[in-house]
Specification:
386 residues, alpha+beta, Beta-lactamase, disordered N terminus, antibiotic resistance, Beta-lactam_class-C_AS, AmpC-like
């Protein structure tokens, strides 16, 4: 797997001690023991010995077979191993699901990706253009709109110091009473300083605006659009934004930076489309299976909308990478103050992986990448593509 400099960008805007820690480990799988299980177990057992990493869960689909593993403890010393009932905050992986819903809207002829976003906004936003070139839907999808990373603007300032222990509390205070109307008011203050469609600038606010447009064209709440689609097309019944009181009891605890105190959950942003979706490992495996299909929805979701260089493009919120080892593959990182995750879809090897840990700091992504590199290398070595 190629380590890309742009991973820094993937981690920015929505959340981005050396000590030896002994942990009880256990893995749970839903298939019989085989070579891939051994590869995954080896990599994840190593991962949870890294500083600050308390636990990890992983879901793999490889040549149609499923593997789920849970390792470590959600809270150190409590022996509360994550399991298939554990609900995780998947952060910016939420954007990929928003992208899927946008593909559906295109296929339903509710909108076109070349449309000016103003077409779907009740108020006038003459500020959402530069030199008479308006922000288009495809610019939101490809992070080339020029809309800032977060709204309100104060969130961007807070996130510049992501690892400060008081960052989660500051975010919770900022978003406690922040609603859709507030977002649309703040949108009037946005200034586009370059022609949209060319310059990559990661924008969670752009994803929120995409959700507002989806609500407009379907006349339906975004979360209902999401849960209905997941239920009907994937059989995923445990992926949602709003949790019941009973579901909240299953929400994974987590840790921010090097703070040993459990961190509060990510605050709910308007629409929740950019980083508020929660899910379970079995549901994420269903999502991987869905993404490994070769139907029109997936082909359009993975279609490059903007090509930045020969190795990197963006689809419907998907990062598209091409290298010699893995071929062309699709990935996204997710991060909130108390968890980080990755999803990889690698058609060349009929392989998809979702990995998550209940820790979020500057080094969390690189720790997961190290485990993923080992898994990819060993799977390819033992099962080369003919």
């Amino acid at each position: 797997m190629k380590t890309f400099p742009l991973f820094i960008l993937l981690l920015s805007n929505l959340l981005l001690s050396q000590q030896s820690i002994n942990r009880e480990t256990k893995s749970i799988t839903i298939t019989k023991t085989d070579n891939v299980k051994n590869i995954v177990d080896s990599a994840l057992h190593k991962m949870i010995t890294k500083p600050l990493i308390h636990s990890a869960s992983i879901g793999v689909v490889y040549h149609g077979k499923e593997y789920i593993g849970h390792y470590g403890e959600l809270e150190e010393g409590k022996k509360n191993i994550p399991n298939n009932e554990t609900i995780y905050e998947i952060g910016s992986l939420s954007k990929t699901l928003t992208g899927i819903l946008t593909v559906k809207a295109v296929q339903d002829k509710k909108l076109h990706i070349d449309d000016d976003v103003q077409k779907y906004l009740a108020e006038s936003y003459p500020n959402l253009k530069f030199k008479n070139r308006p922000v288009k839907i495809k610019d939101l999808l490809s992070h080339t709109s020029g809309i800032p990373g977060m709204l309100p603007p104060e969130a961007n300032t807070i996130l510049q110091n992501f690892t400060d222990h008081d960052t989660p509390a500051k975010l919770n205070t900022l978003y406690r009473n922040y609603n859709k109307k507030d977002f649309l008011t703040d949108l009037h203050q946005v200034r586009i300083d370059t022609i949209s469609g060319y310059k990559y600038s990661y924008s969670s606010a752009g994803t929120q605006l995409m959700a507002a447009i989806l609500e407009k064209v379907y006349k339906t709440d975004f979360e209902k659009l999401l849960t209905d689609y997941l239920s009907e097309n994937m059989g995923a019944e445990h992926t949602k934004i709003t949790l019941s009181n009973q579901e909240l009891k299953r929400l994974a605890s987590g840790y921010h930076s090097d703070n040993p105190v459990i961190t509060s959950p990510m605050p709910i942003l308007p629409w929740g489309a950019s980083g508020n979706i929660k899910s379970t490992l079995p549901d994420m495996v269903k999502y991987i299976r869905f993404l490994l299909q070769k139907n029109e929805i997936i082909q359009e979701s993975f279609r490059p909308l903007v090509k930045f260089d020969p190795e990197f493009s963006i689809g419907y919120f998907w990062n598209i990478i091409t290298d010699k080892k893995l071929g062309t593959y699709y990935l996204h990182h997710g991060g909130v103050p108390r968890s980080q995750c990755y999803i990889y879809i690698i058609p060349k090897y009929e392989l998809g992986i979702f990995i998550i840990t209940n820790q979020s700091g500057n080094n969390t992504a690189s720790v997961m990448e190290e485990a993923l590199n080992e898994i990819f290398d060993k799977i390819i070595q033992s099962n080369p593509k003919s």
